């Protein structure tokens, strides 16, 4: 199994720009993508995904923008951290409450 390539942001932007500039020369978006993808050495589906992501970010297509998706990921990470901290505090509270009860019974 081959490792997937990592393309730099500059290559992605250039490829998307090429598709947008030459889109009118082809009967469909897919035809333009299929023509340009080999020039940057990627599969057409990857390039199509980049083009669609750029269109969403520009407001030309429905969907969640990259910035919104990043914000959601950050908030989900924060919620996970807070839940973990809350669970630790609950356990500590129960531990100290039990210790206080044990101390009172021994006195």
From TrEMBL:
Keywords assigned by UniProt, alphabetized: Coiled coil
Pfam families assigned to the protein according to its UniProt record, in alphabetical order: HTH_Tnp_1 (PF01527)
Residue stretches in coiled coil: 65-92
Protein family (similarity comment): Belongs to the transposase 8 family.
Name under which the protein is recorded: Transposase
């Amino acid at each position: 199994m081959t490792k997937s390539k990592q393309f730099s942001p500059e290559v992605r932007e250039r490829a998307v720009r090429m598709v947008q500039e030459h889109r009118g020369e082809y009967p469909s978006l897919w035809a333009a993508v299929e023509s340009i993808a080999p020039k940057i050495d990627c599969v057409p589906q990857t390039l199509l995904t980049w083009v669609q992501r750029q269109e969403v970010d520009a407001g030309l297509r429905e969907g969640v923008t990259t910035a919104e998706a990043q914000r959601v990921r950050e908030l989900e990470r924060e919620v996970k951290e807070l839940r973990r901290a809350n669970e630790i505090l609950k356990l500590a509270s129960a531990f100290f409450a039990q210790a206080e009860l044990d101390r009172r019974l021994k006195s």
